[in-house]
């Protein structure tokens, strides 16, 4: 009897070992939750970041009149960042700290190629010739940036009209974009100027609205049309030659949850989200380095609700239209 029980015990041990080994082969492991999963999975493939910068002060010295001195932010770092937020394509934008020297940005553009990137340069319209623009166009440049806001420069409507017409005349043959970093107060003048330019215009960072810090008619009612310049901005969007970048909320909002920006953002999406609003990260968030942009991206997706077609336009197709990507 003892021999029988011992034999039975040995058989059971062998059976257990066999079953355990088989479980190692056939049982699929439970997936580990990714730290990058969640709301950002709604961002469509081949999306575009329509506004970001590369900065290398060591290799490419800053302009003497640079308003600030940023840390080094290389192309390799930019691409690593973009991969974490599910974005494949980028638009390199000339920062004010380099003035008209586009070398840093253009070298990065050459490394990427026009299949994955576009760029927006800055140049002096009085000294730049068409052949230079054509050369830049061949490597993926599709716009010129006029940056008044970063350098604290103001112009009256007449001065603004003259300079914008000068740029428009130069870029029109190439079908480039005239990108403006100006305050929303400028839209009153732009409402009359833009229809005469014959080029597409893109306004940086929600058109740089001045959101009130304390209680105001806007903050209590949530009506963005009470903000100075907002009605003119909407009129520009309805004229169909103006785009707006949904970007850099930290340069505008006074609230960490962006509740003061939300009414304005939602109205922009309602009016032109499927046609002329484009998303951008504003990486590396100069003067706000180290900021995590993912909560903003999640908030933008929240503003879109369940409208997946709107998300596709905002993160991809509108940018393809704006930056001359479509074949």
Automatic annotation (TrEMBL):
- Give the domain of life: Eukaryota
Instruction: Tell me which UniProt keywords the record has, alphabetically.
Output: Hydrolase
**InterPro entries the UniProt entry points to:** Amidohydro-rel, Aro_Compnd_Degr_Hydrolases, Metal_Hydrolase
* GO function terms (MF aspect): hydrolase activity
| Occurrences of domain Amidohydrolase-related (ranges) | 49-324
PANTHER family per record: BARREL METAL-DEPENDENT HYDROLASE, PUTATIVE (AFU_ORTHOLOGUE AFUA_1G16240)-RELATED
**What is the protein's given name?**
Amidohydrolase 2
Q: Which organism is it from?
A: Hyaloscypha variabilis (strain UAMH 11265 / GT02V1 / F)
The organism's taxonomy opens as: Eukaryota, Fungi, Dikarya, Ascomycota, Pezizomycotina
